[in-house]
Amino acid sequence: MLAGTSSLALAAAMAWGLATVAPAAAPAVDPTIWPKAKSPAALTDEKTEAFITDLLAKMTLEEKVGQVVQGDISSIRPEDLLTYPLGSILAGGNSAPGGDDRAPAIEWVKLGRAFREAAAKRPGAKIPLMFGVDAVHGHNNVLGATIFPHNVGLGAARDPDLIRRIGEATAREVAATGVDWTFGPTVAVPRDDRWGRSYEGYSENPAVQAAYAGPMTLGLQGALEAGKPLAAGRIAGSAKHFLADGGTDKGRDQGDATLSEQELVDIHAPGYPPAIDAGVLTVMASFSSWNGTKLLANASVLTDALRGPLGFTGFTVGDWNAHGQLQGCSNESCPLAFNSGLDMFMAPDSWRALYANTLAQVKSGEIGHARLDEAVRRILRVKVKAGLFDGRRPLEGKLELLGAPAHRALAREAVRKSLVLLKNNGSVLPIRRGARILVAGRAADDIGQASGGWTLTWQGTGNRNADFPHGQSVWAGIAEAAGADAEYAPDGVFNTRPDVAVVVFGETPYAEFQGDLDTVDFAPEEPLALLKRLKAQGIPVVSVFLSGRPLWTNPEINASDAFVAAWLPGSEGGGVADLLLAGADGKPRHEFTGRLSFSWPKSAAQSPLNIGQPGYDPQFAYGYGLTYASRVEVPPLSETAGVSVTLANPGRYLAAGAVVAPWSLMLRDAGGETRANTGQGASPRGGVRIRVVDAGAQESGRAVSFTGAGDASVTITGPAVDLSRQTNGEMAVGFRFRLDSAPTAPVRLAVDGGAIDVTDLLRRGGVGTWRTYKIRLSCFRDAGADVAAVTTPFDLSTAGKLEAAVADIALTYNEGDAICPST
Could you give the maximum distance between any two Cα atoms of the chain, in Å? Predict the structure, then answer.
């Protein structure tokens, strides 16, 4: 037996004529300790398998290879399918028709039709294209769709039937736009709330995932029937991310889960058997690693476990260029992942070269024909069951289903069931009818913030209420219920003294990379100041906290009479009002039924924090949640955070004109360096000067002046941070820049030792106008930066004269607008 390779994987290697299937160090599994499951027999009925066998015999090698490659709509055009016989396309988090995140829904319909029509024109075997999206809390990519609460809130509902109904509604809205497949349900079990994807998981307790995975699968797909495709209005699902993506060390996205196989099975596998038993058609393999080996390189997990005791007979798909992270692989070539059991590469922008290389690898024998046929059979099996060969799309174009009243009512119900009441001292809730209500906090009238990441864009940023034509903010929901008795003042400055204040605040939208934290401290200071100011005026305060995870908020809880964990409720803010406001009889209109599915921390250093762990000591335990009948008084809580602020903000450098801790701004020239965090200053010999300047808001930027007296730089520096994952994810250094006079010598921007000439880029922006630039981290890495230990995330230098201003320096995400200037 090969070291670290299971018997089944070794047998497969011998059958395919391969030397190895996985790296020698890949940990092997013991199939006997894994749970038993099995895809329904209806997925592999005799008629379907006979059809596939006949079709495989007619397919060319090129057509077979095309089936295992998926490209993203941002980098592939319909006419490309006349040359490349790809089997699937996707629209990633920042991909949309014409590159417009706010494209009308009809453009999605047109795009899908254009791709399908092009695929149908290819000579040879007629195999339909499969179109996938991340519809993870409703059809969240599409303008006008119903946005359901994120899973972190749905876990608090403890209602499997609700989950099934959400799956049904989501499937109808997805089908209406001509899309076939969603990358869900997510059955990850987040075990460290610092993970930026925690809100995608239902609970820290795998029992909740196990209870929800089957109903969500049945909601999306319906029950599989032998010889029949999915019913009208159903779409294919994908259980993800296989496996232990929620168990990585320190909650680092795409990191390493260092745990025993028994822990892997007991904690991170329970969501998969119910999904597989319910007939989930695809499984997405994880970016992450288990004990040092990427899951995509572990045939023992992808083959022995998934195809053995778990009995899965659909196909596996990779995550976004995840195969490129395997040792010896790149985005354009990775036989290792395929030979380990991956059936379809997600190769968003690398599909062209990956197709060519995979074809060459099959021809050379590096990938065996039997392995290719196995993968293609699984893909065709799913396409048959999804009804793609039938060509019937009875819901396509019925765009009235997007944001349909019944779907919005369901989402509102989900909001009500997901909210958790953490504190209600003095029974300030429910708010009596006729009470004067002040609604404060910018988040109160921001549907985008209430919806969080994976909403219209990957990170969910930049959304306005107008982007949710069927939605309702929390403020709008309260105003609808309270009428003239409600007043909205974002800053809390009221016209009429209120009887009670409802303050809505919390995390701003994020997704992976941007969402990862070093601590679970809720850092913004403005909400606490607002709460304290209102309390000092003798006004009872109700806090509605928006977040994708539990965070240390003891100071905010202490400053509140009532505190509601609202999670990320989505587009139906009226569901919040339903719980907060009493009816005409003075009684609650609805009861709080939500219970914590994640433990709430007692200090900001308390992560990981999971029920059953040794020393478990939360502020609010798993399962906690008050009702109106509880009459529990929460005593003052400790306000000792237990962490240093220097641990925070690894990706924000200059915001609102201020350098963000723990970063410092240094001015350097031949005479040495000086710190300039105060906003004014000059380098020792005056080679560069800096001062505050308005950049759309008062004193929100810094003006820099290089005198031309020799090499000088404006540098942001701080403790070493690892930006490897952000680099792999093609994130970028983003900043706003105004050129005030043309440079007289080359201008370079560097991240640590990786410097890039940005002279032409800045000149093209013109003089006197603020421009936003995004330069990919990978550009700096390729220029020599050590992205695993970045101490200088921004260094602007020149030996010549230059007058300019800069603002809003931070890591940001690539929406197809990040560039790589000449190095």
Answer: 82
Catalytic position from the list 319, 374, 445, 446: 319
**In a 3-state reduction of DSSP, which class is residue 15?**
helix
pTM for this structure? 0.85
Tokens of 789: 């230990």
Specify burial of residue 456 (Cβ count, 10 A radius: 0-12, 13-18, 19+). Answer: buried
Phi, psi of 667, rounded to the nearest 5 degrees: -110, 130
Q: Token pair for residue 183?
A: 């990358």
Would residue 512 show up in a list of annotated catalytic residues for this protein?
Answer: yes
pLDDT above 50 for 257: yes
- 655-706, pLDDT tens digit by residue? 877 788 778 898 999 888 887 777 778 888 889 999 888 887 667 789 999 9
How does residue 822 score in pLDDT terms, banded at 50, 70 and 90? low
C-alpha–C-alpha distance, residues 553 and 551, integer Å: 6
CA 304/CA 289 separation, integer angstroms:
17
What is the end-to-end Cα distance of the chain in Å, rounded? 48
Token pair of 435 as six digits: 């009470």
Which position has the token pair 């008050």? 626
What is the DSSP track for 74-85?
Answer: TT--GGGGGTS-
pLDDT band per the 50, 70, 90 thresholds, residue 25: low
CA angle 281, 285, 286 (to 5 degrees): 145
Q: Where are the beta strands (DSSP E) in 22-68?
A: none
Query: Is 319 a known active-site residue?
Result: yes
Residue 790 forms beta bridges with which residues? Answer: 721
Give strand pairing partners of 552.
Answer: 521
Name the token pair of 350. 């690398």
450 Cβ neighbours under 8 A, 6+ residues apart: 443, 473, 474, 546, 566, 568, 569, 570, 571, 573
What was the pLDDT predicted at 479? 98
pLDDT of residue 685: 85
Q: How far apart are CA 674 and CA 642, in angstroms?
A: 32
- In residues, how long is the chain? 823
Q: State the residue for tokens 């240094």.
A: 666
Q: Which residue has the higher pLDDT, 4 or 146?
A: 146
Tell me what pLDDT residue 19 has: 31
Of the candidates 193, 304, 507, 512, the residue annotated as catalytic is 512
